[in-house]
Design goal:
Blueprint (H helix, E strand, L loop, with lengths): L5 E5 L3 H12 L3 E5 L12 H7 L2 E3 L20 H5 L7 E4 L4 H7 L5 E4 L4 H6 L1 H15 L8 E5 L3 H12 L3 E5 L3 H9 L3 E3 L4 H4 L5 E4 L8 H4 L7 E4 L9 H6 L3 E4 L3 H5 L1 H19 L3
């Protein structure tokens, strides 16, 4: 394989600008498209920019509607972009569905979902939790210290969030399906329950942070919440909250997407760049 020397960073949010900066600092020739940049590296023509790149880096997530690249201005249809790719190119995108990945590689190019890189997902927890705290602080008019919090799910993000809230003095209940996860939460100093018992406890919470990408906060729970309760749903699609039911019951429920790009885009972009460079090294592109 030829070493990658030319890269196109296309679409996304402020993370992609930081990603482009980090790849440039690593010695690569970087161009951008659709980021709203006013610099020498910003390409004016999409076709030319794609043709010159050995690798194209798409956003995280790559798309929301499976039709357009997220964040690109003007909008870029996925199928139009895919038609420009060459067989020898490497295409990288974040959170690719099987359908989108298949459409991107229809011309024979290689497609990699860089968000499957464990290094990136582990490091991405920190800016994600910072984003959760930022959202929470902007929405509440009381201190986290002494508040009653529920964290649904105890994966990487759920665990880091619960530990952080616990350290800030919140009374944290972790709701998780597995007994092992609940045991881990208890050893971390939190209370725990399973989802069957969540309706029994729901009325006591000041806010709920959901990290589970499956329906766990439905009408049975939402109708019991106190009027001031806040839900921050930070899970990926299809999310965990019945937002229509939340509206019916007058519950504030926010779908919080792309938190690292909002709370810490510089660090989040550097994390992506570092992970992508290591991925290229492992795959023989360096």
């Amino acid at each position: 394989m030829k070493p990658i020397q030319t890269v196109l960073v296309l679409g996304g949010d402020r993370r992609q600008q930081s990603l482009a900066d980090a790849l440039e600092a690593a010695g690569l020739a970087v161009r951008t498209f659709g980021l709203g940049e006013k610099s020498a590296r910003a390409a004016a023509d999409l076709e030319e920019a794609v043709a010159r790149a050995q690798a194209v880096v798409l956003p995280l997530p790559c798309t929301k509607d499976e039709t357009h690249i997220i964040g690109a201005a003007p909008q870029i249809p996925i199928d139009r972009l895919a038609a420009l790719f060459l067989p020898e190119q490497l295409i990288l995108g974040g959170m690719l569905t099987a359908s989108v990945a298949a459409r991107l590689q229809r011309g024979g190019c290689r497609v990699i979902d860089y968000y499957k890189c464990e290094e990136i997902t582990v490091r991405n927890v920190v800016p994600t939790v910072q984003g959760i705290l930022k959202q929470l602080f902007e929405q509440i008019d009381y201190t986290v210290f002494g508040s009653s919090a529920c964290v649904c799910g105890y994966g990487r993000v759920g665990r880091a969030t619960a530990r952080t809230l616990n350290a800030l003095g919140a009374q944290v209940t972790v709701c998780a399906r597995s007994g092992a996860a609940r045991a881990s939460a208890e050893t971390d100093g939190c209370a725990s329950c399973d989802f069957q018992r969540l309706p029994e406890k729901a009325a006591s919470f000041d806010y709920i942070i959901n990290t589970v990408p499956a329906p766990v906060l439905g009408a049975q729970v939402l109708r019991i919440l106190k009027p001031s309760c806040l839900i921050l749903d930070v899970a990926s699609a299809p999310y965990g909250t019945d937002f229509a039911a939340a509206e019916r019951y007058g519950v504030r429920a926010l779908q919080c997407a792309s938190l690292p790009g909002k709370a810490a885009p510089k660090t989040a972009g550097e994390i992506l760049a570092q992970g992508i460079l290591h991925l290229w090294e492992e795959e023989g592109y360096v």
